[in-house]
C-alpha cells in the first residue's frame, strides 16, 4: 500500500475531518503520516498514524488564539473579523 501524508491546521474543526480521513486510509491498509500542531498529534497517533508536530509552520493552541494572533482577540463573534467597510 501507499504512504500518505495528511496535514491540518491545528483547529478542532480542521483536525476532526482529517482524522476521519486518516482512520479510513489506515483501515484500508495505508501508512499515514499526520503533520499538524503538537496539541493534535496524539489524536492521530491514537488512530495508528505517525504523528509529526509542526516544525516549520507556526504552531499554536486553538484555545488561546490571542497569544499567537493578538489582532484576533478571543476569535469569537463578528467583532473578531475586524471593522467592516460599507
Summary keywords:
86 residues, alpha/beta, three-stranded parallel beta sheet, 3 helices, elongated
Break the fold down into its secondary structure elements and pairings.
Elements: E1 3-7, H1 12-27, E2 31-36, H2 41-45, E3 50-53, H3 65-68
Parallel strand pairs: 1-2, 2-3
Explain this structure to me?
It is built from 3 helices and 3 strands, in the order βαβαβα. The N and C termini lie far apart (54 Å). The longest helix is centred in the N-terminal third of the chain and has 16 residues. Helix 1 links the parallel strand 1 and strand 2. Strands 1-2-3 form a 3-stranded parallel sheet. The model has no long low-confidence stretch (mean pLDDT 89).
Report, as a whole number of angstroms, the end-to-end distance. Answer: 54 Å
Shape designation: elongated
Query: What are the low-pLDDT stretches, counting only 5+ consecutive residues below 50?
Result: none
Major sheet summary line: 3 strands, parallel
Order of helices and strands: EHEHEH
The total count of helices amounts to 3
In terms of structural class, how would the helical and strand content be classed?
alpha/beta
Strand order of the largest sheet: 1-2-3
Radius of gyration: 16 Å
Number of strands: 3
- Strand percent estimate: 15-25%
Tell me briefly what this model is.
The protein has about 90 residues and is α/β, with parallel strands linked by helices.
Amino acid at each position: 500500500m501507499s504512504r500518505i501524508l495528511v496535514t491540518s491546521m491545528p483547529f478542532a474543526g480542521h483536525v476532526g475531518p482529517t482524522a476521519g480521513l486518516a482512520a479510513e486510509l489506515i483501515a484500508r491498509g495505508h501508512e499515514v503520516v499526520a503533520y499538524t500542531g503538537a496539541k493534535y498529534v496524539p489524536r492521530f497517533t491514537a488512530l495508528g498514524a505517525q504523528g509529526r508536530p509542526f516544525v516549520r509552520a507556526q504552531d499554536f493552541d486553538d484555545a488561546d488564539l490571542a497569544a499567537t494572533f493578538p489582532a484576533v482577540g478571543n476569535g469569537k463573534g463578528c467583532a473578531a473579523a475586524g471593522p467592516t467597510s460599507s
